[in-house]
Amino acid sequence: MQQSPRAGREGDVLAVVSQSGPTVSFFDAATDRQLGTVEVPAEPHELCFDPTQRLLWCTTAYHSGYYHANSGRRTELTVIDPDTRRIVEVVDLAPEHGPHGLALDTARRRLYVSVEGSADRPGGVVVIDTETRRPLGRIDTDAPGPHWFAIDPAGRTGYATNKEAPFVSVVDLERGVLTAKPEVPGSEGLAVSADGTHVFVASPYAGSFSAAEERPPTGIRVIDARTASVVDTLPTEDIILPVHLTSTGKLLAGEVRTAPDPASRLGRHAPGRLTVFSADTRKQLGAVEVGHCPLTITSSPDGRIAYVSCVASSTVDIVDLETLEGLARLDIAKLGEPGAHGLAYVPRAA
After folding, report:
1. Which of 2.60.40.1090, 2.60.120.10, 2.130.10.10, 3.10.50.30 is the CATH number of 13-346?
2. Is the pTM of this model over 0.85?
3. What residue ranges carry the coiled-coil annotation (predicted)?
4. Alpha-carbon distance 65 to 56, whole Å?
5. Beta-bridge partners for 287
6. What is the pLDDT of residues 99-123, one digit of tens each?
7. Quick one: how far is CA 224 from the chain centroid?
């Protein structure tokens, strides 16, 4: 008899951001029972779990609203103890603002945080010492709004996607400089292959084009890390926001789907789609319907289960990646729009 994908997860926890909550909620990964909630500064966006320090980092990007539709940019990161479910510290990055993407290098004990630009300088990446929780420096990305950020397994190269800028920013993390700008028509989520040779980038940016016929083909651009150029595209039916690579080599993409609406040029949200590819063969393995507007994806450490937060429906879909069947759907409390956003899987304490 095949073992249940829930087996062995006792004590593991899923942390979920509610952007308008503004909260981080904690769920038992084996039973989906809600364990507690932490109120955080508005507007929380992404989460990153540091297993070395056993802390959660949460970005707070705006005072209200979202990218290009906000009442001003915040400057804080909230540090949370996931075991006691309490705030440890609020780290102020000022004058940096609009922190969003998070990438962790546990070996060097560095956290990389993407921040938006201003009139006098471009966007960039702030480098933080995870022991002292203090900034060490900044790397410019030559783009106004670097959003998602990822690093290669060696911790030497970082990649920032840029919504409006027609390129991905490649930075040398050891020298702290921008080294390349592979061309893509605006970009969203990204993931780096396990061997560091390729980067998978969602493109184009969802807000770049006013009409479907003007938009470049939707999909995942594959960038060769050695040449810093696009070498392939994995096609999708709809715009992709999040991209995630599991420990077993499955490439997960969250497709945002809409239905016609006479009252709106952009249409209305329809159920989204989790599309699964093999990172090695680049072939599509299947897809499953999820909530409205998938915005963040993570997976269990064994690569068996996917978690997809959907901001418009404020839900998290839990999917068995071997059968591509939905296991459960979590409802995430919100006070307005938007809803569920950042995710982090927190294994039980040793």
Report:
1. 2.130.10.10
2. yes
3. none
4. 23
5. 275
6. 999 999 999 999 999 999 998 899 9
7. 21
